[in-house]
Amino acid sequence: MSKLRQLINTSYCRYYCTKQVKKKLPIITCKRPEFNHYEGQSYSKFEGVKLASKGWLHPKSKGDYFIVNLSANKKEEKPVYKKSYEEIGVCKELEEIMLAQGFSSPTQIQAKAIPSILKGCNTVMTAETGCGKTLAYLLPIFQHILQWKPSVTEEFNSPLAVVITPSRELATQISEVAQNIAENLNINVSTLVGGRTKQQMVNPPIEYSDILITTLGAYSKLVTTGILKIHNIHHVVLDEADTLLDDSFTGKVTNLMRKFSFHHQVTIQSPPVGCQLTLVSATMPHKLPEAVSSFVDPTSLKTVSTSRIHQLLPNVPHKFIRLGKAQKPMEMLKMVQADVNMKRPVMIFSNQTSTCDFVSMFLNENGVQCVNINGKMAVALKLGKFDMYKNGAVDVLSCTDIASRGLDTVRTCHIINYDFPLYTSDYIHRSGRVGRLGSPPGRVSSLLSWPREVQLLQRMEEAVRLGQPLPAVNANIKRQIEDRIVKLAS
User: Fold this and answer.
1) What sign does the dihedral 484-68-282-420 (CA atoms) show?
2) Is the separation of the CB atoms in 468 and 311 below 8 Å?
3) Are 239 and 284 in contact, with CB atoms under 8 Å apart?
4) Residues with Cβ within 8 Å of residue 86, at least 6 apart in sequence
């Protein structure tokens, strides 16, 4: 009788627990409901994690899909941080500018990073895309310059702060944000990007600048030739630092950074003494590259981050669709036509320039107005096309990963990965083009055909089901490729 009662109790507990879990919506919804995943669900140590994408290497899996919606059961989120700009040390002038631009209170990363930078600390800032990282370092820089300017002798081509980026598009965007802040202040913001560096070396610019927003290559050349002076610089920011510290850039970055006198902590005074460093990214590796120690004391770096780094954006649904290669164009066309009919701007990512061009051509031939940008385009043409999308002249943009980092695409409602990215960090940055501060609701759709794409997705899906950060978020793409070649050869 006791065994019967024990069996009944066990069965009741299982039924009750299952019922409690299933009251909630699944955070992973699958075409095959038996693979749905619910918040709080755990997996047997012996059975392992059941993946919806487990059989996707088989041709018969074509047409399968699943959707990740981490906020499926969450009501409208309350503000993460309730303090005002004044409470975290931002001066009255800048607080009024933020209010005029519609920002009533700091975001979580701003509330953590601004006090650190204001104190003169070398800071590593890591936070999810679209959460206000640009303002998190610009506001302290502006505040310091407002304090310093009366006691600093102004010299031409000798800024007080420099923000260095890996791409022209990002430099242009950051400059727009800085110009909006500086509009009613006695602070000069200038922009320097590549494309006409030789012309500037022959006919050097002469201008008074307090904050310079620039790309690495152009800035490095003009500093080396002595056209731009660095002795007055007290703030250096590496935006998208994970890319700038990648093996592809690290030699040039290291040589440039060694020219600056980074202090363990700058004493904020007028006139200022020493220089402070800020590293910024959404996908900073947990362990900083060794090259950093060659130009700054690693123990001086204070890390500030949010709880959502290296994870899928919780406020954006992510759909993954298994297709054959020949099915991808029509599936993409169907999605884009639906977006265009609903006036929802969409960005389509490809891994290669040739595919990016094909996507644009295919859509235009099928009556969908689309522009494309990639790294091989001339600077003026590329910026002009992105401006067309940004300003609403066209609602469909085909692009490579050149458009995935840092660009503030607040219009975007839908990201389509025509090609699934090769690396987890690229997926995070592409996804970050939607769900940004001040942007409408967005979503991400990915089309998967190749075995390597499926294998990366399987690792990502497992991490989501186990509530862990996404795997192998490492921006050192060059080194990853070299490691993969070594593994294939061994």
Assistant:
1) positive
2) no
3) no
4) 92, 95
Q: How many CB atoms lie within 10 A of CB 135?
A: 26
Q: Rounded to the nearest 5°, which phi and psi values hold at 189?
A: -115, 130
**Neighbour-count burial for 264-300, b at 16+ CB within 10 Å, e otherwise:** eebebeeebeebbbbbbbbbbbeebbebbeebbeeee
Q: Which of 55, 37, 21 is nearest to 312 (CA)?
A: 37
The answer to whether the pTM exceeds 0.85 is no
Q: Is residue 81 part of a domain?
A: no
- H or E, element range at 461: helix 451-465
Comparing CA positions, the residue from 103, 231, 95, 110 lying closest to residue 162 is: 231
* Domain identity same for 367 and 408: yes
Of 257, 288, 305, the one marking the end of a domain is 305
Q: CA–CA separation, 350 vs 357, rounded Å?
A: 9
The amino acid sitting at 201 is M
Count of domains forming the chain = 2
Residue 16 lies in a domain: no
Same domain, 106 and 153: yes
Q: Are residues 292 and 349 in the same domain?
A: no
**Is residue 460 assigned to a domain?**
yes
Query: What pLDDT, in 10s, does the model give residues 52-79?
Result: 999 999 999 999 999 999 887 776 544 4
In this structure, the answer to whether residues 332 and 439 fall within a common structural domain is yes
Whether 112 and 62 map to the same domain: the answer is: no
51/154 same-domain check: no
3-state secondary structure of 397: strand
Residues in Cβ contact with 114 at an 8 Å cutoff, skipping those fewer than 6 apart: 88, 89, 90, 106, 136, 139, 140
Q: What is the distance between the alpha carbons of residues 74 and 268, in angstroms, rounded to a whole number? A: 43
**pLDDT, averaged across the chain:** 86
Angle made by CA atoms 318, 319, 323, in degrees to the nearest 5? 150
The three-state DSSP-derived secondary structure of 295-311 is: CCCHHHEEEEECCCCCC
- The residue segments making up the domain with residue 94 are 86-305
Check residue 131 and give its pLDDT. Answer: 83
